[in-house]
Amino acid sequence: MSLSFTAYRHAVLLLPHCISGVFDTNGLLVSLEGIDGCGKSTQARLLQAKLEQHDIPFISVREPGGTAVGEGIRQVLLQTGYFLTAETELLLYMAARSELSRQLILPALMDGKIVLCDRFTDSTLAYQGYGSGIELQWIRLLNRKATGGRLPDLTFLLDLSVEEAAARRGSAADRMEKKDFHYHQRVHRGYLKLARQEPERVIVLDATIEAEKLCSAIWMTLCQFIENRAKMGSEDEF
Ligand SMILES: Nc1ncnc2c1ncn2[C@@H]1O[C@H](COP(=O)(O)OP(=O)(O)OP(=O)(O)O)[C@@H](O)[C@H]1O
Ligand SMILES: [Mg+2]
User: Fold this and answer.
1) How far is CA 227 from CA 15, 39, 68, 112, 177, in A?
2) CA distance linking residue 180 with residue 59, whole number of Å
3) Which residues contact 100 (CB under 8 A, 6 or more apart)?
4) What is the CATH architecture assignment of 5-237?
5) Predicted TM-score (pTM) of this structure
6) Cα–Cα distance for residue pair 161/167, rounded to 1 Å
7) Tens digit of pLDDT for each residue in 121-134?
8) How many angstroms separate the alpha carbon of residue 42 from the centre of ligand 1?
9) Residues lining ligand 1, CB < 6 A?
């Protein structure tokens, strides 16, 4: 399936949508999610290449990080020397997200770009919510505050077992990856629960598939999503 720049413009610029009445934005927010080592960054790189090939305007960001403050927070969160309570962890992730959303994500969406996020709001629900036991309601509220109410339009959940992900990662592990097997299993199951709650937004993909094939599946779904939006936009015009 191919996606022309005209179809893209039609899809994302002619169908403005107002999120929570806070920001009136036009772009498309796409997130890649899944447990550590499932292949998110690999897919982010492959998708970037596709977007470049098709001349589609985009930015690509990773969480936590992407801003000067966010990268500093990333160091604190991922280096192994610290013990952090789950609440501290949650608030640090949210602080990094707030910076990233206001400095990069929201302005790019305002320009009608695709924003590709390597982890976003669902990571916090899966890790600090399902993994560490913090109330999901509280996390959802903070997610809305941190993002200015702009949540992902489309999310790809790369589904891989905890065992396979650990084998892919090898021995080097950061502070989050060092948490025990049961923690990662709760996170894994949590992700699948999130997908069941929002099946239209969260697309679950088998992450054992070869990376290039997986990227083609993601690309097809993304194109379909944009084309559906374009159709809805043209129906609204008549
Ligand atoms: N589809 C795939 N099949 C087999 N191996 C893969 C696949 N995708 C990625 N890998 C390999 O798995 C490892 C982890 O991939 P990657 O860094 O993309 O995962 P990640 O989800 O970004 O991990 P993290 O959460 O730790 O950042 C890498 O060595 C990568 O080459
Ligand atoms: Mg990664």
Assistant:
1) 12, 26, 36, 15, 38
2) 34
3) 61, 63, 65, 66, 67, 70
4) 3-Layer(aba) Sandwich (3.40)
5) 0.89
6) 10
7) 999 999 999 999 99
8) 6
9) 34, 36-42, 168, 207, 209-211, 214
